[in-house]
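tokens incoming
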């Protein structure tokens, strides 16, 4: 979707939970666990509310399409 506002993914560590879930470099994350994400601060605040091992749904835009990924959080 053109004009999606979110947090651009600038790094995905190989074999990390994000990589395993399918997150890719330059994806635009717009939602984390059902809550909109527009900044690094938003993401960090939401992440602090969760624990390692929790599974969360992350919505990203890639190639003009929304994709929902399930990420099992690591340490």
């Amino acid at each position: 979707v053109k004009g999606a506002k979110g947090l651009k993914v600038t790094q995905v560590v190989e074999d990390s939970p994000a990589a395993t879930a399918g997150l890719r470099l330059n994806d635009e994350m717009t939602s984390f666990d059902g809550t909109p994400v527009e900044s690094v601060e938003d993401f960090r605040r939401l992440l602090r509310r969760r624990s390692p091992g929790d599974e969360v749904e992350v919505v990203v835009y890639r190639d003009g399409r929304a994709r929902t990924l399930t990420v099992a959080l690591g340490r």
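note: The helical segments are 17-21, 40-48.
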